[in-house]
Specification:
Number of strands: 16
Distance between the termini: 85 Å
Largest sheet: 5 strands, antiparallel
Strand content: 5-15%
Number of helices: 42
Length: 943
């Protein structure tokens, strides 16, 4: 059949070409496997498709557990059975396979059957979890919350566990996708174990790096001007931290809207409360028929859930009173109703009603003080558990060690033992999904399972009661250690970000390992194995936290070993970006490098030596850079190592003012450094190709090769953008903006700096953000807003000083001095240049020396009017520029000297020198400084 075929059945539309299922014009999120199963069944509607044929069609030749097919079928049934015309779509034919049992109309996809705007692309809603396509009995609640949220920006949905808060919140979110241009983010707090993790959860959901020390500031900076809706789910167990953060966001980000689900109010400024009640159920005194019962949402939910489990279940006049009795007994609690309905197939309706009635009598005698809905939920969980087979009970309680979602493989490995095989665990897991005690997410290629927080807490109690908690927490930690090790071995040069869904389980495993009664040995190994995953997910604060915890627990025998080296590296690397150039960062990196050299370790060596070089580079410490190069020379072996060494020499030469060596080493480095980056260097934000491109483009400009410089800067930024990593991009943008400013192209400078602002703010790269503020100040000065420019530059210099980012500080000090001069504050300008020259003497960054000497002479002339000192100062600056090969500065100085020459001889000499220097420029002759000199030479020649 054509890939452009469209199939219609009931109120559904299935597009093979778009790979999209929709109902009544609304897109339904399904993973690719679930869609493939549905397409296979629909194309063969009316026929039986065997399990083997289905699995071959969907998974090809891959070995897949049969449970995967059953879980996908089960979830498809839930999706399909909740449509308005809830027919039975997929029928199981025992021993033979499955059949799509309703009529299907096929047509070709010339035009959408529904308005294009009504069906949203799946990729745009991936940040929202899947919810049932049909919401029962909550339309009024969704509408009222929606209106309140748009009017007041902050709403908390309150209600007991299992009442349906998350489902309602997701329905509100989906109704507002267009209003917020798809900028809706779901933040699940259920897996968190302590308050300290709340800001990390927010940052991760927003796609921000978790820097550990500035998370809140980064979150607020990112949200400052954004129109976005945050859905914050399961707040109650971390309510203090949520309250503090949401109040700050509400106050600081006026376009952000917040929708929280919680069992108690956050009690913060701006919060509006919506108390979610149970689903309406029939009163005792009403005569029940199928028609009257169906009007109550609790009954509708029960019927739909029962129908997804039983082919022939129908609500009739005869059973309506029994269904009403069950829903009434469960107080309209959505989760309890779903669990009860899932048992109709095994107990029958009469048996279910009798069983519940008996349990309620016991419950009411034993716990009269409990709230009715708390009773109903506990009761439902109790009897749902009691009705499980003994082995199902065992598997359920063992699954409680998971946090967030987990894979089938993880469940098979952790919940199995000598008596229960992995295959049997898979079978029981499928049963638990059918009974609504475990949920399955089929929106991705691999099925992910999870326990609702209420079910997990209940199962965890049972695990403790069986005194198995420690054993299965250890197995859980051991499994994730093996998973991470296997990933690193099989995909050594790939990002580990594909394991993002497992990060909650890694966190919980580490928490247990380092807790009382945990296993510190597994914890130490797991910390090392998880470090790359955390770095790839930008969870830098967590990486450092766990590495510090592991380092504290090292035995004497482990000191000085590969274990300490790895932990020291993973502790030090994130700190470089979190704290800037502090002394503890230097010590940590140095310790890691010392161990790498001592142990002759070629895995960690490139990272540690590069981090130490980056530390000295930020500090503008030429001596430190050269010392690091000497240490690197002793470890250089392969092409990558040679490229690293040449890259370091290239950058050090530029800032030391040796431009010829810079270009020489840049060429050698770029010849051997691979375009495909090393993952280990990528993780710490070090990119030698971008460093070489950036420094060499500036060197080319300074030496008069203007067109080559522009092209290299363009190439550098193009390559940095393609990498998708914020640090190399920010590096390229910092120096690309400098080049645009030198070229006098203010539009290009503003464009690049705006991109730098976005990149550095979103990724919490504070030193880069401070440089962007400084560039903004320089642009303001050049556009005539001098006072605003000075304000921004002063702030930039102050912040860079705080982070010991001397290299960037020196750059900004020079720009600030020129801004002071523009304001007529020549004394302040000259004093600032003196301060900057002192920084240069401290650091050895001679690249700016000649221009600063020129600036000092000019500012001193305006301050004191001493012409002799002015000329002497310019002559000294000229000698320095010629010594360092700084052609651009040489030209500017000679232009000054030509203008102030008083006698014919000195004027003739000055003009000759200026003309000779100008003649050495063969490119970029339309640059403002060259245009000005050419005009000056023409005017003086006429005179």
């Amino acid at each position: 059949m054509s890939s452009g075929s469209v199939f219609e059945f009931g109120s559904f539309r299935l597009s093979a070409g778009e790979r999209q299922l929709s109902v009544d014009g609304r897109a339904i999120r399904l993973g690719s496997r679930a869609l493939d199963i549905l397409l296979c069944l629909v194309r063969n509607s009316g026929n039986i498709v065997s399990n083997e044929d289905l699995m071959l069609d969907v998974w090809g030749g891959l070995h897949v557990e049969g449970v995967s097919l059953r879980v996908h079928i089960s979830e498809l049934r839930k999706v399909l059975s909740q449509a308005a015309d809830a027919d039975r779509y997929i029928v199981n034919v025992p021993g033979r396979g499955y059949s799509f049992a309703v009529p299907v109309k096929q047509c070709h996809e010339n035009a959408p059957a529904f308005p294009a705007a009504a069906v949203r692309p799946v990729a745009q809603v991936d940040r929202l979890p899947m919810r049932p396509p049909k919401l029962v009995g909550r339309d009024d609640a969704v509408q009222r919350i929606r209106q309140e949220l748009l009017a007041n920006r902050f709403v908390s949905i309150l209600g007991t566990g299992g009442i349906g808060k998350t489902t309602v919140a997701l329905a509100v979110a989906e109704s507002l996708l267009a209003e917020f241009a798809e900028s809706v983010v779901f933040i699940d707090l259920a897996p968190l174990r302590n308050q300290r993790m709340v800001t990390s959860a927010f940052a991760t959901a927003l796609g921000l790096p978790v820097r550990g020390e500035n998370e809140t500031a980064s979150i607020i900076a990112t949200l400052d001007a954004a129109k976005i809706l945050l859905i914050i789910d399961n707040c109650e167990h971390v309510i203090g931290a949520v309250a503090e953060l949401t109040e700050k966001i509400f106050d600081a980000a006026p376009r952000v809207h917040l929708l929280a689900t919680t069992r108690e109010p956050l009690r913060v400024r701006g919060e509006k409360i919506y108390r979610l009640q149970g689903l309406a159920f029939p009163p005792e005194d009403e005569v029940m028929t199928a028609g009257t019962a169906r009007a109550y949402p609790a009954v509708s939910l029960f019927v739909e859930r029962a129908r997804s489990q039983m082919d022939d279940f129908q609500l009739t006049d005869e059973n309506a009173a029994l269904v009403a009795q069950v829903c009434r007994g469960l107080d309209g609690l959505a989760l309890a109703i779903e669990l009860a309905a899932g048992r109709v197939s095994s107990l029958g309706l009469q048996g279910l009603a009798s069983y519940l009635s008996q349990r309620f009598r016991i419950l009411n005698r034993g716990r009269r003080t409990a709230q009715p809905r708390h009773q109903a939920l506990r009761l439902t969980l109790d009897w749902s558990h009691d009705l499980l087979e003994d082995t199902e009970k065992i598997v359920l309680r063992r699954l409680s060690v998971f946090a967030g979602t987990f894979s089938l493989e993880a469940a098979e490995n952790i919940a199995s033992d000598d008596n229960i095989t992995g295959h049997e665990v898979a079978e029981f897991l499928s049963n638990l999904v059918d009974k609504s005690l475990v949920s399955a997410d089929v929106t991705h290629d691999q099925v992910r399972f999870r326990l609702l927080d209420t079910t997990r807490d209940y199962a965890s109690e049972r695990l403790r009661g069986a005194t198995e908690t420690s054993h299965f927490c250890r197995r859980h930690a051991d499994y994730y250690l093996s998973l991470l090790k296997k990933e690193a071995q099989q995909r050594p040069q790939q990002s580990m970000a594909r394991l993002r869904p497992d990060i909650d389980n890694v966190r919980v495993a580490l928490d247990w390992c380092f807790s009382q009664g945990g296993d510190e040995e597994i914890g130490i190994a797991l910390t090392i194995a998880a470090a790359d995953l955390m770095t790839d997910l930008s969870l830098l604060g967590e990486c450092t936290k766990w590495a510090a915890a592991a380092l504290e627990r090292l035995s004497d025998a482990q000191l000085g070993t590969h274990t300490e080296m790895a932990l020291s590296t993973h502790f030090a690397m994130p700190l470089l970006f979190m704290r800037g150039n502090s002394q503890d960062v230097r010590q940590a990196i140095d310790r890691a490098l010392t161990l790498a050299q001592k142990l002759e370790d070629n895995v960690f060596w490139p990272s540690t030596v590069s981090a130490l070089f980056a530390f000295h580079l930020r500090a503008g410490n030429i001596e430190g850079m050269l010392e690091t190069i000497l240490r690197a020379e002793n470890m250089t072996e392969g092409l990558q190592e040679r490229g690293i060494l040449e890259g370091m020499k290239c950058v050090a030469a530029f800032f030391a003012g040796d431009l010829s060596k810079n270009r020489f080493h840049a060429a050698r480095a770029l010849a051997v450094l691979p375009v495909k980056r090393s993952n280990n260097l990528f993780r710490i934000g070090v990119d030698y190709r971008i460093w070489c491109y950036s420094s060499c483009s500036l060197a080319l400009w300074i030496q008069g090769f203007r067109d080559q410089a522009k092209e290299m800067a363009r190439q550098s930024l193009e390559e940095a953008e393609m990498l998708g990593s914020p640090v190399p991009l920010a590096t390229g943008l910092v120096w690309g903006t400098v080049l645009a400013l030198w070229a006098g192209d203010l539009d290009l400078a503003e464009q690049r700096n705006q991109r730098l602002l976005e990149c550095s703010t979103r990724s919490a790269l504070l030193p880069f953000r401070f440089v962007a503020d400084g560039h903004s100040g320089t642009l303001s000065v050049l556009k005539g807003n001098v006072n605003r420019g000075i304000e921004l530059l002063e702030r930039s210099v102050s912040k860079l000083l705080d982070t010991n980012s001397r290299l960037q500080e020196i750059l900004m000090l020079g720009q600030l001095a020129q801004a002071y001069a523009e304001a007529g504050r020549y004394r302040d300008a000259r004093e600032l240049v003196d301060k900057t020259l002192m920084r240069i003497r401290e650091t050895g960054t001679k690249i700016y020396l000649a221009d600063l000497m020129r600036m000092r002479a000019v500012f001193l002339w305006h301050e004191l009017g001493d012409r002799e000192a002015y000329v002497a100062g310019l002559q000294q600056a000229l000698m320095q520029a010629r010594s360092d090969g700084i052609l651009s500065v040489e030209l500017r100085i000679l232009a000054r000297l030509a203008k102030i020459a008083e006698d014919p001889v000195s004027s003739s000499h000055a003009l000759a020198a200026l003309r000779e220097t100008f003649g050495r420029f063969t490119e970029g002759l339309d640059s403002p400084d060259l245009v000005e000199v050419r005009h000056m030479l023409d005017q003086l020649a006429k005179a």
